[in-house]
Structures are given as structure tokens and as C-alpha cells.
Give the backbone structure.
Amino acid sequence: MELYHNHIFPKLTHWVCSRKDFIYQRKKIVPQAFGRVLEIGIGSGLNLPFYNPEKIDFVWGLDPSKALQKIAEEKAAQVPFNVEFINLSAEEIPLEKNSADTVLVTYTLCSIPDVVKALKEMNRVLKPGGELIFYEHGKAPDDHIIKWQNRMNPLWKLVSGGCNLNRPTPRLIEKGGFKIKKLDMKYTSSLKPLSFNYWGIAAP
């Protein structure tokens, strides 16, 4: 499993998250970031080309995967703003209170072990007037789909680096101390247990 998680899984993650449907959603949400940005789960840097350089000062990119960071560093070299990588998980963010104008998180809340603790950390580092911008998959609204998510989750979590199919994303964001200002949701593919998505903006 160590070979899989350290070498195969990072490349597989980059390939899957580079699909057209994922990129389409990134193009919609990433340009909303502004000021000093903390990206949680920067992964292989797939969001970097979609930041609006006229709106941001720089980006902190936090992710525990060194293998994915190597890919992200190549993308960071191609953008007209500075990116500083932080090789840690989101439960302990090494930034001072009120450090960031924007926290961006895409397809990451599903896999953070203590997600509420991580969200409270994101809340802590956001300035007053700052925003949490999120795009995540999670618990579906339909009972028959939820049953499939619950059945599939143990095996899915094992092979997907700790990703959970059935987390109630909006409720978790609120448990982290945020107030949701805008929320959209829908199935984004015919594979419904894998594709119920939430996206929006929350404030500390």
C-alpha cells in the first residue's frame, strides 16, 4: 500500500482531477479568490492557472503530499504571482490569526481526517471580511443514493487516499464556525454516488 499511496495514487489523483468536468468547475470558482490566498489541498496545482492575478497578492499552497507538491511546483513556475508551499495537513495551519483574505478549498474537505478542526483553523486565519470559497463533493440529497454512498464508502476511502463520499459538507462548514453566504449544489455526472457537488462562499 505504501508504493500505491506514495507513487501511484498521486499520479492517479492528478489525472482524475484534470478531467474536463473538474476543470470547468475550477474555472468558475477559483477566479473569485482575492488578496492573500490560502489554498487548502493545493495538490498538483490544478487551480493555479485559474487565479486572477489582478485580484490576488500571493498564494500559500497547503498540502501534505510531497509527491503532488513536485507537480504543483512546475505549475507555480508558470504563473505571474508567488506561491509558497506548506507541506502539512490542514488541522494545524502555521499562519497567524487574520493572515488570509481568502481560503480556497476544492475537493479536499472529503479527505481531511479531522475536518471540523481544519475548518476552525481556516476560520482562525481568515481576516474579518475574508471569505472561504469552496467546491466539494459530498452527501447526496436522495435516500437511495445515500445508501449507495454509505455502502461504497469504506472501500472507496481505502483506495482514494481517505476520501469520503458521504460527508455533509455545508453542515461541516457551519460547525467550523462559518456562515454560508452562497450555496449551489447538483449532481455533476451520471455516477451519482460520486458526483453530488456543493460550491459557494462562507464567511467567518
About this structure: The first strand starts at residue 35 and ends at 40. The chain has a mean pLDDT of 90.
